[in-house]
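Hey,
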Amino acid sequence: MRDLASPALTFAPELLLAAQPVRVAFLDIDGVFTDGGLYLSDQGETLKRFHILDGLGIKLLQRAGITPVVITGRDSLPLRVRLASLGITHVHYGTEDKAPAAERSLQELGLSWSEAAAIGDDWPDLPVLTRCAFPVAPAQAHAEVRARVRYVTRAAGGEGAVRELCDLLLVAGGHYAGLLEAYR
């Protein structure tokens, strides 16, 4: 059996070096936290499926002092409930123009683009992805997005892509092993 002192995760050294300064992570919802599908109930309510691994990843990120910021073009009660349950307090709902929202969050947090990571899957995410220091896309992201990021996750959106980003940032910041040790 593998010892917890020796994590199973490995990332390329150049990725870890590039991710070291990250103190804020900008996250899209549809196609990142979810699989990008829109599920509609008989009453026309939009339903979303979230992956549980992503939720713990966000909580671990917060414990390490990295602030998650959600910027999404949508808004719904189930989405608000999920984000509240994760303790995400920096959220921009119904936001199509994402770069100004990210700028506001950076100002509020006293951070700069050089301390930011972002994960997005489609064209509306590009203005944030192209400004931040560490841009990431989930595996199924649009080709134009995948071509402009530093890292493409092995996992798809809604299937652990957010957790993969969180793990990478935790390893880069030197927090991963210590956090894992708490689960020994």
